[in-house]
Amino acid sequence: MQVIIELENYLLALLPRLGINKQRELVRLMYEISKRDHKTPVEILPPQQNLNFEQAKKILLQKRYPVNFKTARKDQFYLPKLELNPELEADLTERPFSPKDIYIETSVKDSPLADRIHSAFPKAVFHETDGKTQVGSPNFSRRLDTLLIHREKYDFLKPCPCSCGSTGCGYNLVNLGFGCRFECEYCFLQQYQNLHAVLLPANVDEFLAKIDEGAFRMGPFDRPRIGSGEFTDSLVFDDLTQYSASIVPFFRERPNLQFEFKTKSVNIDGLLRVGGYENIVVSWSVNAAPITNLAEHSTPKLAQRLQAACEVARAGYRLGFHFDPVVIYEGYQQDYARTVQEMSDMLPHDKIAWISVGTLRFSRELKKQIETRFPKNTILNGEFLLDFDGKMRYSDTQRLEAYRFLVPLLRKTFPKAVVYLCMEDPAVTKLF
Ligand code: SF4
Fold this sequence. Notes:
Radius of gyration: 23 Å
Bound molecules: iron/sulfur cluster
Number of domains: 2
Distance between the termini: 46 Å
């Protein structure tokens, strides 16, 4: 990759005896600074007499981490080898979901879902499978080419794994589907999903049967919460799956439980058809406009999401919102305040059940994926440090500043909603 070669050559001219590992660290720092500040190598690290590796690294760390350089531990700076590969960049062409190859497991080939898929994609190549054949592409960006309709046998329900050492909120997950057609730059699926295809189970009735056998955690809520949006967006494929037509009536009869559809989509026709109930919450991820516009590719904009929220509220559902991930950048507070104001202006306040807040965090592996798939990203420009659970986060000081701004604003604007932090250090959570 040209940018890496240019940085290596510049550093070799400056520090001719630099070992390979030291060179990698400096290349990474130079790359991250030049991407964020739009500066050339000579502007970032001008030639100077008797410069050695330690001095060069210190200069670059100070420039890369101006807020946290003095307070962060040295082992919190994560400087892996920079690896960019244009062939693995995300394909951001706008197009409808139209899989080329569709695999249907023999055991569900006569299911209503299989019938709907046949009608929806007449031009696709259909394959019957015993479920043992590996399907999908090695390239995550090609995942939408393949759809697998299967019968889930094991992975029905589980407590939300949260993040190791974080404060849990007692959430419970049903894994109704895997894969998403949106392209959020921070999405953990791009690092987590090893089968690069969309998977949709045809046996939603078996998922629901397991719920009646389940013992659920409550967390800080009045009733257990169960949701389906961990490995997919809960509604993005609902026009095909029609899961909502089974889920909503099931939970309507179980008012001691709450079900949450978590989405960025406006695919709400199924919900409107079946009609809502107070224990069924439809929640939207919301963000500052620059993050929605630049980092949540192919998703509906904030106004469209809020419009959809108003419609489902009128149909009897309650609403949830997730300020997640909050991204810290210059002027972020004004942008997030604007989003809160838009929500306040448009939404029926008394219908909002909960609002979560969580700052951007990611694993080390995900950082490299984001960098490779979205080389023009701005979300990684912030100062991320290795944290208590091995994830990368903003420093405690920066996160606290974000929460001290946003949490009271949300509580003041929406006094009836439960506002809570998601996947945070208990020491931070207890302050709110
Ligand atoms: S909507 Fe959710 S699941 Fe889909 S790409 Fe964005 S973060 Fe990932």
